[in-house]
């Protein structure tokens, strides 16, 4: 049996489907490029039949990504498989992942069919998908709760129909490791054609068992793990990619398998996913939490000073967490910035040097010293910013009387290049700024979540504001970063206003296309 475990990342499918506001095509592409750099073998990037937006993002990613295999999800229905195949067809090689539920609960209550009917649908779907590619994966949804005889029959039939990967999901995160490992062992013992497929696992974290279940499955012969960056996904999330990668690397002599993950990319990929998905990582999260490499107690610090391996089983550097604090100030030239970006693993195609350098100088003037994490944040914000942004925040002046609980804000916003100034009051500085921005842009949004965090450490940190805003039933995620938290809040709302404006333009365009089609058909 091979000692290589295939890493199948589903951040952009299972992870994305759990977000409050969906990602834009550009954001998904940014994550896909980071996943490619991280070295995932397969990336599942969407469910093309679900919406035209999903179709477009799968197609865009399939066109761009070359080093990882791109995959899309389809129910065991021809129309789903057609959509997946069509979106993926721009790639040289691709995978279609089709699935159907196999547990009695799902078969009877959700599908309202018999197990025999479901078996026929699965076989039909796999054969149909094979018309488009040799690389077909089949998943037995809710396998963790499927009677083992039925599961063995389903796996054997799907392999015979042409599936080259068979995925065994613990869809509701119900099993414990001994039980889940037992399911995988039984499949290897009882399914006669099992050697013709790779056995994959896809575990959810409802009982906090997803990583342990996946590792146990590998010990029993599974050779693909489905996971997401930071463990994001439905409900409590999916098995976390970074934990799997570091378990298999750190305990290689015990487990005897390896992956193609470039561990040094873990830290920044985690950061990017957390930022774009508006999903903060808990401080004590294994591998990527802010405290994962922090030693607090005196006894531990003393041990660390004597020998690092007293309390560290892996180093922060191994996941790309570089504590280098090179002194960058407004006197630092472009070459210093470029050099730091290179040391952090970014190439010039990841950011716009001119925009980054301008933003760096502005920040250096305000803060004095700029750190690696600031630079990363600026490069990230530049990637976020639309260079042709319709609304741009030019000035924000706020006066606040905290004893009375009133504040006044004046904003100057460039709208398509023309400046407009508006003032408004509110029950605090952020509220006043938001009212003034709403006036200037003539968009009234409902803020459903507002999160204030820090990017960086201590007094030198930048304020980061993440908001989710609802406009006409649709959620938009805005991000702002500045030394001043009110300014960061205002930037986040302006970011949302730009997304709304873009969504309105897309809607207008679609309506015009529809009208011209109708006129054409009269
Ligand atoms: O959790 C699950 O069962 C899934 C399948 C579609 C693989 O996400
Ligand atoms: Zn899932």
Question: How does this structure look, described?
Answer:
Its EC number is 2.3.3.13. GO terms for molecular function: 2-isopropylmalate synthase activity; acetyl-CoA C-acetyltransferase activity; manganese ion binding. Keywords: Acyltransferase, Amino-acid biosynthesis, Branched-chain amino acid biosynthesis, Cytoplasm, Leucine biosynthesis, Manganese, Metal-binding, Transferase. Helix 7 (148-161) links the parallel strand 5 and strand 6. With 522 residues, this protein is of the alpha/beta class. The protein folds into 3 domains: 6-277, TIM Barrel (Alpha-Beta Barrel), CATH 3.20.20; 334-384, no CATH class; 391-508, Alpha-isopropylmalate synthase LeuA, regulatory domain (Double Stranded RNA Binding Domain). Strands 1-2-3-4-5-6-7-8 form an 8-stranded parallel β-barrel, surrounded by 6 helices. The chain is built from 18 helices and 14 strands. Helix 3 crosses helix 4 (78-88) and helix 17 (429-441) runs parallel beside helix 18 (485-521). The structure holds 3-methyl-2-oxobutanoic acid and zinc ion. Zinc ion binds at residues 14, 169, 171, 202, 204, 234.
């Amino acid at each position: 049996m091979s000692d290589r475990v295939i890493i199948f990342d589903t951040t952009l499918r299972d992870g994305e489907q759990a977000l409050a506001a969906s990602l834009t095509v550009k954001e998904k592409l940014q994550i896909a490029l980071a996943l490619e750099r991280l070295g995932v073998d397969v990336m599942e990037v969407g469910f093309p039949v679900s919406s035209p937006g999903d179709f477009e993002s799968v197609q865009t990613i399939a066109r761009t990504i070359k080093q990882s295999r791109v995959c899309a999800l389809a129910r065991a229905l021809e129309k789903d498989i057609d959509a997946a195949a069509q979106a993926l067809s721009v790639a040289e090689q691709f995978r279609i992942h089709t699935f159907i539920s196999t547990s009695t609960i799902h078969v009877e209550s959700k599908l309202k069919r018999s197990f025999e009917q479901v078996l026929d649908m699965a076989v039909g779907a796999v054969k149909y998908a094979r018309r488009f590619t040799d690389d077909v994966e089949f998943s037995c949804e809710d396998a963790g709760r499927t009677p083992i005889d039925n599961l063995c029959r389903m796996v054997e039939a799907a392999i015979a129909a042409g599936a080259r990967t068979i995925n065994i999901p613990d869809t509701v995160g119900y099993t414990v490791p001994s039980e889940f490992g037992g399911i995988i062992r039984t499949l290897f013992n009882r399914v006669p054609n099992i050697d013709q497929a790779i056995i994959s696992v896809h575990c959810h974290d409802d009982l906090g068992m997803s990583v342990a279940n996946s590792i146990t499955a590998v010990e029993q012969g599974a050779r693909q793990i489905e996971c997401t960056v930071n463990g994001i996904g439905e409900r409590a999330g999916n098995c976390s990619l970074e934990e799997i990668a570091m378990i298999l690397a750190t305990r290689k002599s015990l487990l005897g398998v390896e992956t193609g993950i470039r561990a040094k990319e873990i830290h920044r990929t985690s950061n990017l996913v957390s930022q774009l998905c508006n999903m903060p990582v808990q401080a004590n999260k294994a591998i990527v939490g802010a405290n994962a490499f922090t030693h607090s107690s005196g006894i531990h610090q003393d041990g660390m000073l004597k020998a690092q391996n007293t309390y560290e089983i892996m180093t922060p550097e191994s996941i790309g967490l570089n504590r280098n604090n090179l002194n960058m100030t407004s006197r630092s030239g472009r070459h210093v910035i470029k050099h730091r970006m290179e040391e952090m693993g970014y190439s010039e195609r990841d950011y716009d040097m001119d925009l980054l350098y301008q933003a760096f100088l502005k920040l250096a003037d305000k803060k004095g010293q700029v750190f690696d994490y600031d630079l990363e944040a600026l490069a990230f914000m530049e990637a976020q910013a639309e260079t042709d942004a319709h609304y741009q925040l030019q000035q924000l002046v706020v006066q606040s009387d905290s004893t009375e609980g009133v504040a006044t804000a004046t904003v100057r916003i460039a709208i398509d290049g023309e400046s407009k100034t508006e003032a408004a009051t509110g029950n605090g500085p952020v509220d006043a700024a938001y009212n003034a921005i709403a006036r200037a842009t003539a968009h009234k949004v409902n803020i459903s979540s507002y999160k204030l965090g820090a990017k960086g450490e201590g007094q030198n940190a930048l304020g980061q504001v993440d908001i989710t805003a609802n406009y006409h039933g649709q959620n938009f995620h805005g991000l702002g970063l500045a030394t001043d938290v009110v300014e960061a809040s205002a930037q986040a709302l302006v970011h949302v206003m730009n997304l709304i404006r873009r969504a309105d333009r897309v809607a207008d365009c679609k309506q015009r296309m529809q009208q011209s089609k109708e006129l054409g058909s009269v």
